[in-house]
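Researcher: Let's try something more involved. This one mixes different molecule types, so please make sure each is placed in the same coordinate frame as the others.
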Amino acid sequence: MVDKHLKICSLCQNPAVYLDREREIHLCSDHLITSVEEQVLIYLKKIDLPPVVGIAFSGGKDSTALLKAVCRILDQLSCRVVALTVDEGIERYRQETIRAAEETCSILGVPHYIIRFQDVFGHSLDQLVSGSDRNACTICGILRRRALEILARNHSIKVIATGHNQDDHAQTALMNAISGDVRKVFSGMGESPWYARRIKPFAEVSEREVTLYALLFGLFRDLPECPYASSSLRGEVRALLYRYERNHPGSMRHAARCEEEIRDKLGISFERDPYQTCVSCGWPGSGRVCQVCTILTNEHLDRT
Amino acid sequence: MRLILPDLTEHQITVHGRTIEEILVEMNIDPLTTLLSRENEIIPEDTVPDDDDSIRVIQISHGG
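Model: All components are placed in one shared frame. Result:
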């Protein structure tokens, strides 16, 4: 007898765990896992991978799912992976997520390297924002990027894979459109001997699929939320895109792909401002003093 | 149906043939920001639950 309260996988007869709203099919746990890993494999097969790929690994659900997925398809790739973690120094939050990251790497047998804000910059994030009105997320993003580059460089890693998913891409695309700053669309393009290449194997995988993937492998932990997380433009854009996706399935994918196509087709001809060399640290940046040094000298970013 | 939200508050709801998605939308919860579990099994949001079911809502994305 058919249980009317149970949805069945469209590809087999097992109970469904996921509704693919755009394709209008249900997937069971096995087919959801296969679907996610196929998307990651297709993405990585298009890239000329070096012998070692670094996975930017916060210990959160996205990077944990990415590490698991890459490990499971590693025999089909010509590389090995290491996990790269940045400890920003956020009291009562980061210790728990770092522990989760260490535990996951131990289970998966992946070498794990950690770098601390305190060691690189002489201050934790808590110390840098304490008693000031500076935006923690802006400061954290700039310093974390530099710390990750230093960690990659210390281990001769030329390619870093991040856990950004399709939803992240769609949100960024819409935020770039709203800000009207075309340079942001093309930022990060082009080779630089200073920076490792960033790749995003979950570019075609939704946040729900990523989360479900982690959940099905018992890797989804109810970790604390960053105490600096606050409502922001991204939060508003996220809510808007989810509403579109619910009413018009595929909207998220279209928004993400639209910007990607613009980058592919116009990226070569777009004239970018050349990098300047920071007079303080020697790293490349957009001004005479790079954003990292601006933060560390306690200047306001908008003065540069 | 007993609905357990991410903040662990519980709501007793009469299903009236509605999907969990429809119920969540009426509660101003976007179903795409959640996953759902029934007796520790994940189920899709277009499932029509039974009045005896206990459904846990798992939040997948945070603000910020």
